[in-house]
Amino acid sequence: MPVGKLEDKIPDQKYVLKRGNYNIRLADSLERRSEASALIKRMYSWRGYNTESTSVSSSHNQTTLEALSGQELVGTLALRLDSDEGLLADKLYEPEINPFRARNRKLCELSKLAIDPHFSSKELLASLFNLAYIYGRVIHQATDFIIEINPRHAGYYKRMLGFHQISEMRTCPRVNAPAVLLRLELDYVDAQVSRLAGVHKPAERSLYSLFLTKHEEKKIANRIWHINEATTFGWNALCG
pTM, whole model, 2 decimals? Predict the structure, then answer.
């Protein structure tokens, strides 16, 4: 899938990023959040997970990214900044999470990752994580990502993104499936982006070769702010 030049990655006002055959936008309306919830429910059901907790909420601490192929929604990823409201992972892993809070780490939780297998690709996954990094790190100065993941998939995230497992396996009640908690230190991501971003080597055993360069990510961060300013909502109202 071709990556293209940066100007080709931003097609119009609605989208944050265009790459290859798909566009990525913010789920910044009730209609978009409903569409995202429907995709998450369909993908979780396909994997045999409980689907009672698949709805995408509207919260000033959360935003949801949506990937589209044409007009079809094919991927989602939600981000939640740590706050007094806590994180979804606190239900199972608060003892593992609290030591990072005690060290004044600024946590950002990734959840509700769902990609239609007919459209799945390294480029799509890299773009969702790249935008999550821009949102969490560049805009909100997060220090760490955490994510609850099925142990079957944990190895991929460790190998391709550098996550580390910080918990034992437990059953996640939201999806009624086994889960482990992974952590990714964003200082590490900074270094990988500086070293690998823009390389685009298909054989590279890292998604960071598909990330935007530092120069490009600043333009995307500004693009997010521009989309915010072009609406009647504040930035917090975009989060959901």
Answer: 0.85
